[in-house]
Amino acid sequence: MNRxxxxxxxxxxxxxxYFTAGYPALNDTVKIIQDIEKNxxxxxxxxxxxxxxLADGPTIQESSTAALKNGxxxxxxxxxxxDIRKSVSIPLIIMGYFNPMLQYGVEAFCKKCxxxxxxxxxxxxxxxxxxxxxxxxxxxxxxxxxxxLITPQTSNTRIRQIDDASNGFIYMVSSASVTxxxxxxxxxxxxxxxxxxxxxxxxxxxxxxxxxxxETFQQATKTAKGAxxxxxxxxxxxxxxxxxxxxFTKLIR
Amino acid sequence: xxxxxxxxGYYGEFGGAFIPEMLYPNVEELRENYLKLMYEDSFQKExxxxxxxxxGRPSPLYFAKRxxxxxxxxxxxxxxxxxxxxxxxxxNTIGQILMAQKLGKTRIIAETGAGQHGxxxxxxxxxxxxxxxxxxGEIDIARQAPNVARMKMLGxxxxxxxxxxxxxxxxxxxxIRDWINNPxxxxxxxxxxxxxxxxxxxxxxxxxxxxxxxKWQLKEHEGRENPDYVVACIGGxxxxxxxxxxxxxxxxxxxxxxEAAGKGVNSGESAATSAxxxxxxxxxxxxxxxxxxxxQITEPYSISAGLDYPGVGPMHSHLYKSGRxxxxxxxxxxxxxxxxxxxQLEGIIPAIETxxxxxxxxxxxFKKDDVVVISLSGRGDKDLxxxxxxxxxx
Lengths: 253, 394
Fold this sequence. Notes:
The complex is a heterodimer. Chain A contains 12 helices and 9 strands. By secondary structure, chain A is an alpha/beta fold. Chain A is globular. The mean pLDDT of chain A is 96. Chain B folds into 2 domains: 25-50 and 89-202, Rossmann fold; 56-87 and 208-391, Rossmann fold (3-Layer(aba) Sandwich), CATH 3.40.50.1100. Chain B has helices spanning 24-38, 41-55, 65-71, 89-102, 116-128, 138-143, 145-153, 168-181, 199-207, 209-222, 238-244, 273-276, 314-322, 332-346, 352-358, 384-391, and strands at residues 10-11, 14-15, 61-63, 74-78, 107-112, 131-137, 157-161, 186-189, 229-233, 254-262, 278-282, 285-289, 325-331, 371-375. The longest helix of chain B has 15 residues, at 24-38. Chain B is globular and about 55 Å long. The model of chain B has no long low-confidence stretch (mean pLDDT 96). Chains A and B meet through helix 3, helix 5 and strand 6 of A and helix 8 and strand 11 of B.
């Protein structure tokens, strides 16, 4: 069974961490993944950097630019991850934009993910209809879960469509924003979280965008299954390097 | 073959809407409504009235006698440079501001490279009393100071794009991010025939007034609606899209595109997308784009800020791939020389972007009675500093 599916069946709220592969240094990838797992995090999104990350705020943009400058490529990331399953057992998801995958070859990319032990993909700019028309069969052939996003503006009809098309979890974007831009959750987020919870979707939801500390993690996971931290973790790495990951996760739960 | 967008926004294999879910409601709202709204009688009436009284259309189709003698064919110039604000860009911004109003939007955002689209957007926002924010690369802000001043004078806020290469591509990213952050009250006026469906098709339709006029104007001059060739420069490709539109399905009309080769197609400093690009995804559409083998979008270069874009509109990718259009590229030097020639033979100083179209005579020989219509997409006032430096005019 896919590791994401197994993880989602655990009774607890899930903490997931996103980081940009190749940042701060090109070869930090494996160490960061191992350290994140060691500190009790449930799932990891490995960011494949892109030159034009249009859904991301300045923090992830800058880490992506730096990672590319460090020399990160799809090929190098796959090489770094070759033996990752010897030391890491939590679900691993690659998150990136569609163009680098398209250039690598969608089927070759998926095949490589299966060989490595990647469990799922998040590709914000691969739209639902294109995925279903052209790529779903390939993703399934290689056992990959594709994760779709919903936002406070997504209509109920479309949320149902996305729920039907999903086979893992739904990535619930907390507010109308790019990554890393809101500070704290207000009434608007709370009612959105409640609205989604009331829809009784078949896929659990994991909240992302704007999670940065214990308080926002608690708020997000009151109704959702888990939460993803991205920009706040990258900021922490920028300030503290890769040696103190334990202290970061302690700030969350 | 069909050269227009199908209902999902594809031109052959190119186009579509590769957008993050955050943009889906906005783009979907536009997709569902744009055709219905723009062909309502009241919309058409207002649009055409503004094009006539405010923009100054129809723009003349001028027979360039001395240029024709020089190059041994019959050359007509479609004078988009005479439009209000000095380029074709305003045709589209007039259309889109009316669209924004119909959709109940109150805040307008735009991206700009050379500043022409930014000025055209700031202009229509002033006209309609709407809030206007223009994203412009930090580097372009420095090299296009007069247009920055124009936008400010028109009441727009110019926000520098500080990410990436700090030029047009990054200004576009910033505008898209703004739209993600402001999904309800904001309309994004894209300036070129790029972006997610329905933008390329909508922009083409608003710009198609150019070829619509060429048809009846040429009939008056030559007794026939179809020229032998239409020629336009291409960055993202909005003036080209408008210039070609009514001729795409007229097989006797040759379609010619001139891209910016910068310092030479293979110099590493170029924006000749058809020659250097591969199929990929940029700013929400699938099209030809300049990128690394790893799929990272590369930095283009051209002396003209308006052609300094790593992709080309999906319609043009299809025209290229299908062989419907002939693609050429002109270097900085060729474009500058062609601009000087037009100035001295016809008394018209073109924008440097437009100079590329006039460099076609370096690359293609026309027959004596060929009727060649060139889109004179913009005037050169904004480029005076570049001309001064290049030709040492000071």
